[in-house]
Amino acid sequence: MDVPGGRRGRADRRDAGDAGADVADGHPTVGAPDLRRRGHRPGTADAPGPRRRLPDVAGRGAGGVRVITLSAEAASVLTGSYRLRVAVESWLGEQLLAEDVPVASASEDVDRSLRVPERIALTVPRHDRGTSWSPVTDDHPLAASGQRLRVQLGVDLGGGTTEWIQRGWFVVQESTADGDAVTVEAVGMLALVDEARLVSPFQPSGSLVSTLRGLVEPALTVVVDPALADRSVPAGVNYDEDRLGAVMELLDAWPADAAVTEDGYLFVSPATPSTTPVLTLTDGAGGTVVTTAGKSTRDGAFNVVVARGVAADGGQIQGVAYDRFGPKAIGGEFNPLPVPFFYASPLLTTVAQCTAAAETVLARRRRTTARQFTVRTVPHPGLQAGDTVAVTADEYTGLCVVETLSLPYTAGGGPQTLTVRSLT
User: Fold this and answer.
1) Which Pfam families has this protein been placed in (predicted)?
2) Which residues, 6 or more positions from 60, have their beta carbon under 8 angstroms from its beta carbon?
């Protein structure tokens, strides 16, 4: 029994037919095996590892939106029945361990409220064409010793043509061989930052950008949207153990947002949601079902954010942001008195910085109490958490942000499930 290692010739590469799904009315169904050799996936032959090219920052939408782009032809295919394929590579540093991990079933779950939002689950045959996929050695493609999985999804355009898009990079968290199958759990690249607690107190110097890079790199390469203004970090700032917590505090104080791109970079952008939808979801159209969560609570609700910092002379300063719209607006029926949320950071040194941070925190906290909808729809390989979508349903018509998603990669996974919250 061989152990996978290095590249296999293209003539020997696994066909995607048994690792794909025919998608119709939101339900992937098993199709007849496609015995043709699949087309060359972009970047497979010459990709040296996770960090290959910088994202096209200039080409991104308003607010630095991360968008996985599809061709017009692929986008049109997604409106009907189509075949979705999956391809997985395993890398250890700059070494390609396996070009084509055989996948029996796979899915992805993303939740923006988690410190590490992304998680994928794979089921791999224990033995496949004379190769053992049981992670018995530290350098095995499915071992949890730093191995990273590159996931690509393909949309069958017909005529033997498949358009491949990169879904993302994931760190192998755990692999377990049981019977005839190996189950693999992999997590988003932010896990590298989350698990790397600070060994000694971190005292930043320089600017916000250099501090962020000092906390994150070389685990992740930081790419900053030019729309963000950098500024100096005040003296006396100290971070103790929580490296990822320090990153989040810095982003709130900037204010900015950050997410790992499909190419494995940490992209930092203005903390404002896009008002341009990447997709329209209409209840009852093409198998799409939109339902209201039907939950309302006062827990965690507020209508004022107070952000506090320290001026250069040591005096305390603050900025305030008010919720002036919606059912919980200040001065409304929710409560005639202000209901505040307090936020403090030593990175805030002016009233303007405090006010900007307060507005960002207000927008983020409002999102957690906005109207929530569950959407079940045909799997869309390019949709990401944080994307803005247009929702049309009996109870609501307007813009929403994707907060969670569950995306089946293979047959039998059912429809794609989204949790979205209204922007209005």
Assistant:
1) DUF5047 (PF16466)
2) 66, 67, 225, 269
For the entire predicted model, the pTM comes to: 0.83
Whether the CB-CB separation of 375 and 417 falls below 8 Å is answered with yes
* Domain locations in the chain as residue ranges: 10-188, 197-269, 279-295+371-422, 304-353
Q: Residue 215 in contact with residue 249, Cβ under 8 Å?
A: no
H-helix or E-strand containing 251?
helix 243-253
pLDDT in tens, 13-50: 333 334 455 665 443 432 222 322 233 344 443 444 55
Amino acid at 184: V
Token output for 109: 């779950």
Hey, what CATH class is 197-269 in? alpha beta
CB within 8 A of 291, min separation 6: which ones? 373, 374, 375
DSSP, residue by residue, 109-134: EEETTSSS-EEEEEEEESEETTEE-S
Provide the phi-psi class of 150: left if phi over 0, else alpha when psi is between -120 and 50, else beta.
beta
Q: What angle do CA 62, 318, 353 make, to 5 degrees?
A: 30
List phi, psi (to 5°) of 408.
Answer: -75, 135
Contact 272, 304 (CB under 8 A): no
Question: Quick check: 416 and 78 in contact, CB under 8 A?
Answer: no
